[in-house]
Design goal:
29 strands, about 40% strand, about 425 residues, mainly beta, 4 helices, elongated, 3 domains, 3-stranded mixed β-sheet
Length: about 425
């Protein structure tokens, strides 16, 4: 007998008998629900899965972190007048009635493996000096979760409500009839009125008194949190911590498999040698306005410079840089947008040259990342960067001097901002 299932996303399914799985989860402000439901598990399981999809590196496909797959054997019993029939089904990536703790523990390993493949978005802005990747220890500390180092919370810290206890403590001669006493001591959560034998004599018997004047104390019992794998009873706090980690993973850093750069040499000024720089190399070209296309593999270091070799200026520049989507190896199972940040630096022409930074008004500052203006060519599906058309060469040049003016783009970072479907609500 097969189990009826309903598709969720990415090939994952849930038992149809679970009903609608789109209710309010525990990942909301001022959550009051303490019972974990299947929709809460779905957020973590599929949130992890889709972030693995975003690490795709090849079309076959290959991933930096392989999307998890969980195969389980489920059985069901059918009772009839003839006895019990047992049915067995093999299911994959299926959400059932009960929380699959082994699956959740395995997902923790995957979540931690994913972290270093995502960018710390606090370091991504126009003007940053360093775009860095997340680390487990850094993320745990910044989110203030678990042991704030590398472990999730296992059982959360909890404190009993503050209460007043009375210490019932007295000595009674009852039920003895020979003067033997019994010491009685215990605590009570209310002020008790106790009748007991205060004394005993052979002639007078027991002397009884009543007392309610007991010492009291205000108490609160606290259990410290524990850390590590999920407990057998999964707490809301356990899942919320995983949710926060997955929520922090939004942007990956990619290097295109190939970058198409159209280069051109312009305006040989009163000289006979023509220069065009790429990859810090000087490339000769004919003394006219020509353009050629080169395919560059990473790392990408592009120069926009003009050189005075002691007798003449020669201007070399790169006309545009194009990144073809089909070569970016980005997963198409989620929507995404791409931003390209470049780190401008002084172009060093080598020994004997005086190097001057000049961005021709483009707004570059050496050592500061700048978000490049992008445009989409709908026909060829390119993302482009168009640099200045010409490097200025004004200014006096000493006789026989060797001078380079312009800039180079190093540390080009292509950032992919993913529109994930799970663990996206930063509710805290």
């Amino acid at each position: 007998m097969a189990f009826a299932t309903t598709a969720i996303r990415y090939g994952w399914v849930a038992l149809t008998s679970l009903g609608v799985l789109t209710g309010v989860t525990i990942y909301v402000v001022n959550n009051t629900r303490q019972q974990v439901k299947p929709e809460d598990i779905i957020e973590i399981a599929l949130g992890t899965y889709e972030r693995c999809l975003a690490t795709q590196t090849a079309t076959n496909p290959t991933y930096s972190v392989t999307p998890p797959s969980f195969v389980r054997t489920w059985t069901s019993n059918v009772y009839t007048t003839n006895g019990v029939t047992v049915y067995t089904s093999i299911v994959t990536n299926t959400i059932g009635w009960h929380v699959d703790r082994d699956m959740m523990v395995s997902l923790d390993t995957t979540i931690k493996a994913l972290v270093p493949y995502y960018v710390d978005t606090n370091t991504v802005y126009d003007g940053t000096t360093n775009i860095v990747m997340l680390t487990v220890t850094g993320l745990w500390a910044s989110l203030g979760i678990g042991d704030k180092t590398n472990q999730f919370t296992r059982t959360p810290c909890w404190t009993n409500p503050i209460s007043t206890n009375w210490v019932i403590d007295y000595t009674s001669y009852w039920p003895s009839t020979n003067g033997t006493v019994t010491n009685i001591s215990y605590t009570s959560d209310y002020r008790q009125v106790v009748n007991y034998a205060q004394s005993w004599t052979a002639t007078g018997g027991h002397v009884w008194v009543t007392s309610s004047n007991w010492d009291s104390s205000v108490v609160a019992v606290t259990n410290a949190a524990t850390y590590g794998d999920y407990p057998w009873q999964i707490y809301v706090e356990d899942l919320q911590e995983r949710y926060k980690v997955l929520n922090a993973m939004k942007v990956t850093k990619r290097t295109p498999g190939k970058t198409t750069v159209t280069v051109g040499e312009r305006e040989n000024l009163a000289g006979t040698t023509n220069y065009l720089t790429k990859y810090n190399e000087t490339v000769g070209d004919s003394p006219s306005t020509n353009y050629a296309t080169y395919n560059f593999n990473p790392p990408i270091i592009l120069s926009f410079s003009a050189q005075w070799d002691g007798s003449s200026w020669a201007q070399g520049y790169i006309y545009n840089i194009s990144f073809k989507w089909s070569e970016l190896l980005i997963s198409t199972q989620m929507s995404s947008t791409v931003s390209i940040y470049a780190l401008p630096e002084i172009y060093d022409a080598g020994v004997g040259y005086t190097n001057r930074f000049d961005d021709n008004g483009y707004g570059f500052i050496p050592g500061i990342y700048k978000l490049l203006d992008l445009g989409n060519d709908s026909t060829n599906d390119y993302v482009m960067f168009d640099p200045p058309a010409k490097i200025p060469v004004s200014g006096s040049v000493p006789a026989n001097a060797s001078i380079t003016t312009g800039f180079k783009l190093a540390g080009i970072s292509m950032l992919v901002n993913w529109q994930f479907n799970y663990c996206t609500n930063k509710y805290w």
